[in-house]
Amino acid sequence: MSWKKNGFSYFIWLIYALMTGTALICLFSGMENRMTTGILCTALAFALVGILVFLLHRFGPKYSEKRNEKHTVRNVMEAAIAVVLLAVGLVFRIRGLNEAGQTAAYFEMAQITSGQSIPQIAHGAVYFYVQILHTVFYFLGNKFIAGIGFQIILQYGAVLMLYYSMRHLSGHIAALVTLAFVMCSPYMVQSTLMLSPEMFYLIFFMAAMTWVVSGHMVKLRPSEFLFLGAMIAVLSYMDIAGLLLFFLSIAVILDTRKEQPGWRKKLSAMLLCIFGLLIGFTACVYTDAYISGKSANGVWAAWKALYHPKGFRLPVTYADSDSVTECIVLFGLLAFGVFSFWRDRKSDYMKAYTIGICIVLAASSYGIFTEEMPGTLWLFLILSILAGISVEECFRKLPKTVEKPIEIEKSKAVEMKKEAVLKREEPTPQHTCNYIENPLPLPKKHEKRILDYDVMEEKMEDDFDLEIAEDDDFDI
Q1: Which one, of 9, 7, 29, lies nearest residue 17 by Cα?
Q2: How many angstroms separate the most distant Cα atoms in the chain?
Q3: What contacts 380, CB < 8 A, 6 or more positions away?
Q4: Residue-wise pLDDT tens digits, 453-476
Q5: Rounded CA separation 156/165 (Å)
């Protein structure tokens, strides 16, 4: 998925470069508590990454993203790497089961006890997660390991859909890099080993994302965006993070591809998506009011109070050494995008994701995300996607600049008009014709003749039928 590069793209690139450089300076400075060390290490890292991107641009292998070409070897290698990453991630999660922390809140709400019922919770994702976890404990017993296993299954389902979406959105290398971060990241491993509604909500989010970037959405059928808006409304009612899907849908509509739809088709798709979002959200409010026995105004007030902006506060957290190393690797790969952005003069593959990071950071700073589902997960996922795209751009084969046939026809038409004007301005010489005498006699004029013979025609003599006897056998 790419967008046309314009002046706004360079402004977004500046934000991307400042974000990456500031994060690296903070990370390197935190290792020795010296700002000078952080600045020097960041400058050295940018210099090394710039040289590496230049060498890959000049001498590195390039590949094209044409779907019609068969790349058997590449597909087999990609599948093997993906399977290895999934296996390594599973090993990390199994090894961490002994150190898994038991979240008492969700475990106590979901466990099976006599006379206990699940309380009504304003947060939709948390309420449905407790209901599903309660069902798991009903069949498998009140075992903490059963909830962790359930979360591992949820996360793997979401990761596979994310990998599929990334292959369609950005390419094979970007999908593998994102898969490597999600599978091997200590943050993602730890989020799986803690009972939390994040993995439960993530699988529904990724299912909707997969449907957005599938072939139906790429063909841009406006009628399907009505259903998409309703689906986004349901996820947004469960958690405010569902509105990120609305932003992704707009990005897909504005995506530049070979078969470019008209502006009327794009506008109708946007309006239908917004209309479906409004209708779906209204339906969710009235359905919740009917089930809970409250008024629609009360339900709407409770949802608005849950996600209304609070005071401004920077979302800064302290992490251990493993997380710092992980962040250095992540932002080190993001540094590739600072230089690979300049390889393609026409297409921009990072603009929408950078805007998404700004949206998540702004929402986290104003406390729009809740404590049950903070914006850390979405920030990590978007950064991982951007890291994959940054590496992807170093190996993407740039399209050749070929003059379009329409432009060729227009240029030919202009040249023909110029030639016609020049011919009209030039004086045309007048030639005189000299005829020779005709040696043949001229044709005579036609005269109508009348037959005036001395023969009188009598009646009944113009009958040429001869009577033949019945026994005449002249034809034998």
Answers
A1: 9
A2: 143
A3: 185, 187, 188
A4: 666 666 555 566 667 777 767 665
A5: 14
